[in-house]
Specification:
Length: 442
Amino acid sequence: MRQPISWSALADASVGVWGLGVEGRASVRRLAAMGRVPVLVDDAPPASEVEGLEVLATRSGGLDALTACEVVVKSPGISRYRPEVARLEAAGVAVCGGLGLFVAEADPSRVACITGTKGKSTTTALAVHLLNGLGYDARAAGNIGQPPWDPAHGPDPDYWVVETSSFQVPDLARGPHVVAVTSLSPDHLDWHGTVERYYADKLSLCTKPGVWVALVDGTDARLRAHGDLLGPHLRWVTAEHVERDAAWSGSLGLPGPHNARNASVARAVLVGLGVAAASDDQALAAAAEGFDGLPSRCQSLGRVGSVEFVDDGLSTNVLPAQAALGAYAERPVALLVGGHDRGVDYAPLGRTIAARQSPTLVVTMPENGARIGAEVRALSNGRIEVVDAPNLDAAVDAAFAWAPEGSVVLLSPAAPSFGRFADYRERSAAFAAAAARCGVPS
């Protein structure tokens, strides 16, 4: 059995849940509400039971237990290209994702899926904020929201806007009527295997059955170059749209041209959903007010004198780090980079840094910071100073010691936080604590 199947179709199936993160636990609750008792498996099982059930280790009997199931609902973090997935499917097990099961039976006119290497979180949050401001009950789903199939969230809203990662797209057999793509750059090569497969997986969102319109940022050169993967329902969101939308998007108070593009994509999503007020600039300007932005996305933590500390810890790739630098193009920047190495090419980030005219310091952190620093040194011919720090605290100290008047100490690491921190939130909290030690008011 392979998708399309839905949550309700699992009422009489033997089901396993593989991966017990946020989505996995939501899946367990959904199955419990249906009266199903699933097999629970995780690569690194928690010390205690989950929802009163034992969790097996994948390598210690868990995979065999999953093979005996009819359906396995896997976590997005488990690559569809792992050999264990192939083994399950060869045994006749349907390997699904929770989002795919949800979309298969949701009202496709009341769901929008937004993907992109960068910008998808902000664009999702913007679309939800605008919908709420226009009087609709809308909620975010995905990494910045809640799994929409989780019974814990109560009745469904008028609209779900789903931040959809490249990990989730391959598990979708259908799409909603409206999808959007904000950007494209190499990422997650450890999950997808090759950059070509990453592009194909992510952009396949636009060609899923059920999609009526695929809204794509036409200012992104790489997306333009991969137009053949975007399908027959393509509508470009162009620079002209962004310029026109300045009449209302300024009310959001977000820095940088990348956020102006995100706002235009968000508006296009509302128009695609058939929201009449989305065509009214005055209504959108009023709805835009009060948007606080996302934590760890170009979030100002405060100043010490004229030196501003900015947390862009959600930057886990080259593109968002480039966008953050663009937002502060006219100011001196001490840029903190480095984290888990996913094998990404950092030459484009090195070129962006080398091209800066304002004073710039690059402070590298383990594990891959040295690789970024090497690109900057080579491409700037030594014009940009690079300092290697052993950890985040030392990096903040070095950045603040260098920072001239009016500068920005910017955490935009261009890499995930795996290894040194539990997640980006913990890394951002450590940055905030280091900034506080430098004198940023708490």
